[in-house]
Amino acid sequence: MRTESAPRERASRGAASAPATVRITLSEFPENGRKVLWLGDVPVEVRRGPDGIEARSLLCTHFGCPVKWDEANQRYACPCHNGMFDAAGEVIGGPPLKPLRRVPVVRSGAEVLVGAEVSPR
Predict the structure, then answer these.
(1) HSE of 29 in the Cβ direction (CA atoms, 13 Å)?
(2) For the chain, what are the domain ranges?
(3) What is the DSSP letter of 28?
(4) Can you tell me whether residue 68 is helix, strand or coil?
(5) Where are the alpha helices (DSSP H) in the chain?
(6) Across the chain, where does the E strand assignment appear?
(7) How many CA atoms, within 13 angstroms, populate the side-chain half-sphere of residue 110?
(8) Distance of CA 50 to CAs 12, 20, 74, 103, Å?
(9) Which residues of the chain have pLDDT under 70?
(10) CA dist., res. 101 & res. 21, Å (int)
(11) Model-level pTM?
(12) Topology classification of domain 2-114
């Protein structure tokens, strides 16, 4: 039981202590590419698609375990309790009741600002 509580504790502490903003440049990843970065202890995926740039937390909303993108099945999978999320982060299976948390993104020229309190320079 103790090993299951550790991810949740880590996630809640990480969310509170995470830096407000991470700056990346558009040249760091190609269109239709995915890049994982960290806001404190929270893994965040930034995706650059044809409709723009979006970011979401990679912590499962059920128990705080890290999810991974499954390219073959085009979904996020959580190894802890078999939670599944579609490409947009919406729940498609398992015990999670809420979608993956979106993280604000602002494009400022050639930079992308990712984080909870994003503001241009």
Answers:
(1) 19
(2) 2-114
(3) G
(4) strand
(5) 2-17
(6) 22-25, 33-39, 42-49, 52-57, 68-70, 75-77, 84-85, 91-93, 102-103, 105-108, 111-114
(7) 4
(8) 33, 26, 17, 18
(9) 1-19, 116-121
(10) 16
(11) 0.77
(12) Rieske Iron-sulfur Protein (2.102.10)
